[in-house]
Amino acid sequence: TIVASIPLLKLYPTRRQLWGVLGALVCLGTLMVDGLDRQIPPLDLLLAISVPLSYAITNTWIRRSLRHVPALDLSFYSLALAAIVQLPIAGGMSSDSTATTEQWWIAFGAVTFLGVAGTGLSTFLFNKLIHEQGPLFAGMVTNLVPIGALVWGLAGSRSGHPAASDRAGRSAGNGGRRAVQSRVGNGAAPTYRGFL
What we know:
Elements: H1 2-9, H2 15-37, H3 42-65, H4 71-91, H5 101-133, H6 135-139, H7 144-156, H8 164-181
Helix pairs in contact: 1-3, 2-8, 4-5, 7-8
């Protein structure tokens, strides 16, 4: 996000923000090395790295070009566009489901709840963060996504013991996020300023 914010928004990070982002990048590298050690295909790891890159570009573009659009409207339009693209694809897929009517309603209720509470609310809050705090602050939330994935993976694993590098990567990544998102002495959110 820093690399995109400087040329597009003419905003420079504070030293604290820079150190937080660099720390998160070191943690991302640690997780990638661990993934290679576990024989995860490099293409899969590159796909994982594309997520924060996509967030960085999108967050900066939203702040630059869509600042005038309220967060709620922006969330509605983006989710509606996603539905327009994805619903025909989902409708065209065949299913040999043997679910009972009761199971179908439970699944429908779960998907509806996750769509509104999970995707809808989180998209609105994320867009609100971009508008109010800036793309770097909002982008650091993406460090929580792999941490959550690792926690869920751990909960479902048979061994129940994450590798030391996983624990270190999660802890340090969370520390980097906290450094970037921490408040300054007067309680105000940190603002961009030159760091050189």
